[in-house]
Amino acid sequence: AEPNKLKNANVLFVLGGPGSGKGTQCEKITATYGLTHLSTGDLLRAAATAGATERDKMLRAAMERGELVPLEVVLDLLRSAMLAAPPGSPGFLVDGYPRELDQAVRFEADLAPCRSVLFFNLDEAAMKLRLLKRGETSGRVDDNEATIVKRFQTFQKLTRPVVEHYEKQGKVVKIDASGSVDEVFQLLQKSLQKLGF
Ligand code: B4P
């Protein structure tokens, strides 16, 4: 087998419900700390709009239904993106992943161990408001009322157990995501400092 070039990578998983602000905060972390930001949502949207193949259509349909796309697709995209990252990056922010327990297990077995999980905590009413606001201009197939409800269900059923799995390992850093973008970033910086960044 090919040697695993990623096994010593410094990996932080970034989780939170849809609209909790994880993508927004990851961009701020990247600008300040130089970590490499990989959003599985962004990778999938880029893959899905690239062509009109059956696979692209299948990805778009899953996102439009607020469901998860197949694990292998996400894992392949992540692996390629991590291998293509510039060398010497202090670490990876893996945003929106793992969204189900199998994704966590496969990532850690095949790619790299997870050091910590940053979890953005916010109630559904607030997340929904943010997503509907974004939906006014985003053009995203999933920023509408019906899909948002489905995304919340997917989060509770499949992603919650991932957070619990890492809580048992003492790896979860919980961040109150209810404040303004700058307020949340202040809290986040304190947590990152504790993690040694
Ligand atoms: P994502 O792209 O991850 O979508 P998301 O959960 O909505 O998060 P996002 O990062 O975009 O939004 P954010 O909270 O930052 O996933 C989309 C879909 O892709 C999934 O439903 C699934 O189908 C598929 N998918 C992705 N990853 C997958 C995986 N691993 N496995 C299988 N399928 C996968 O921000 C939301 C809005 O809030 C923004 O408009 C932002 O400006 C605003 N906002 C942020 N912070 C704010 C604040 N503090 N105050 C006010 N507004 C704020």
UniProtKB/TrEMBL annotation:
GO terms for molecular function: AMP kinase activity; ATP binding. Pfam families: ADK. Belongs to the adenylate kinase family. This is adenylate kinase. The lineage of its organism: Eukaryota, Metazoa, Spiralia, Lophotrochozoa, Platyhelminthes. It is found in: Cytoplasm. InterPro entries: Adenylat/UMP-CMP_kin, Adenylat_kinase_CS, P-loop_NTPase. Keywords: ATP-binding, Cytoplasm, Kinase, Nucleotide-binding, Transferase. PANTHER family: NUCLEOTIDE KINASE (PTHR23359).
